[in-house]
Design goal:
This protein is an alpha/beta fold and 380 residues long. It has two domains: 2-243, 3-Layer(aba) Sandwich (UDP-N-acetylmuramoyl-L-alanine:D-glutamate ligase), CATH 3.40.1190.10; 251-376, Mur ligase, C-terminal domain (Protein-Tyrosine Phosphatase, Chain A, Alpha-Beta Complex), CATH 3.90.190.20. Helices cover 39% and strands 16% of the residues. The two termini are 22 Å apart. The relative contact order is 0.12. The mean pLDDT is 95.
Length: 380
């Protein structure tokens, strides 16, 4: 895939561009794969990938052929596109990417390309159902060309404010953009402000379902949202399969010390993460290895991280939007900060110091460091 990889790299350099024009043009060029299968469309600030994975697993177990599209990936681009838990074969992915790059009249973004590849694959494989996770926002997200059986909005909080707005109302309005006329929508308990979704659903005559119970654990909350979504779909499902979790969501690895891998990357996710750490490891001192993207809510995220840890080891993820360690350090008041832009040696240093002090080591902030860390831990 060397040529394809270069083309993907070039597309990634175009950055983030919200809008549906490219997707509609590609969809038309390929004969509307977006309409070839039923789908569930999932948006939300946090939890949407976990909820999507749980719904796909629960629907797969009764014998359905279920596609799953999530992002970003940890180790391989193929992870984003699956059917019944099996990654898209590399040759098939290359075939669809080649077809997309053959549309010379369109210059799609990286996410638009991977989304169209997923739609093409699911249509070709004639899936019974596809679970599609929104990349960012909802209204102008590349996935928002489908008309699903069910729309799901998990949570609303501050993230991607450069693109989605700086208030919860404006963020909610963007995510409410996945609500379709006459299509039911399910809200998680932290999908607020409720009035935004209520007015949009009323305007579009979309039946509105809402989980009102509060949960102290985000994994339990995600499971409840997925279970209710399955109940709203016209298919059998398996409650046992709802226990599945994607990798690096409070993934605990016991080495010489406990190591927790978690892809939390915004203030709400960090609050939930530290709440669970206190529940699972009460009183345990925490040292954290952190990398963040430059387009995140850096200052409040770093304030939470520094207030809950003994020391922050700031490093840099190997991808274009990574925040330089110096810019992160400039936002922190704490003196307990160690800078090392080299991810591998930063982990070694953090692990050694945590081991010496019998601390828990938390690795967090972005998907884009997890593959290298997992390799160092010999999990792959």
């Amino acid at each position: 895939m060397s040529t394809i990889s270069k083309l993907l790299d070039r597309a990634e350099e175009r950055g983030i561009k919200l809008g549906l024009e490219n997707m509609h043009r590609m969809d038309a060029a390929f004969g509307s794969p977006s309409a070839a299968f039923p789908s569930v469309h999932i948006a939300g600030t946090n939890g949407k990938g976990s909820v999507a994975t749980k719904i796909a697993a629960a629907m797969h177990y009764p014998g359905l052929k279920v596609g799953l599209y999530t992002s970003p990936h940890i180790s391989s681009l193929q992870e984003r596109i699956q059917i019944n838990g099996r990654l898209i074969p590399e040759a098939k992915l290359e075939e669809h990417l080649t077809s997309i790059f053959g549309l010379n009249f369109i210059r799609p973004t990286f996410f638009e390309i991977t989304t169209m590849a997923a739609l093409l694959y699911f249509a070709e494989e004639k899936v019974d159902l596809a679970i599609l996770e929104v990349g960012m926002g909802g209204r102008l997200d590349a996935t928002n060309i489908v008309t699903p059986l069910l729309s799901v909005i998990t949570t609303i909080d501050y993230d991607h404010t450069r693109y989605l707005g700086t208030t919860l109302d404006t963020i909610a309005q963007e995510k409410a953009g996945i609500i379709k006329s006459n299509i039911p929508v399910l809200l998680g308990p932290n999908a607020q402000p409720f009035t935004v979704f209520y007015s949009t659903a009323k305007e579009k005559n979309a039946p509105l379902h809402r989980i009102q119970k509060s949960f102290s654990d985000f994994e339990v909350e995600n499971r409840a949202i997925a279970k209710r979504a399955c109940e709203l779909l016209p298919y059998p499902s398996s409650d046992e399969a709802l226990e599945i979790q994607p990798p690096c969501r409070f993934e605990v690895i016991h080495k010489q010390i406990p190591i927790v891998l978690d892809v939390a990357h915004n203030p709400a996710a960090f609050r939930a993460l530290f709440q669970k750490l206190e529940s699972q490891f009460p009183g345990q001192p925490i040292r954290a290895l952190v990398a963040l993207s430059a387009d995140k809510e850096l200052e409040p995220s770093l304030a939470l991280l520094s207030s809950h840890t003994s020391t922050l080891h700031l490093t840099q993820a190997p991808f274009p939007r990574a925040a330089p360690v110096e810019s992160l350090a400039s936002l922190i008041q704490s003196q307990s900060v160690i800078l090392n832009p080299d991810l591998s040696s930063a982990f070694d240093e953090a692990y050694q110091m945590a081991s010496q002090r019998e601390e828990l080591l938390l690795v967090t902030g972005t998907f884009y460091i997890m593959d290298q860390i997992k390799q160092k831990l010999s999990l792959f």
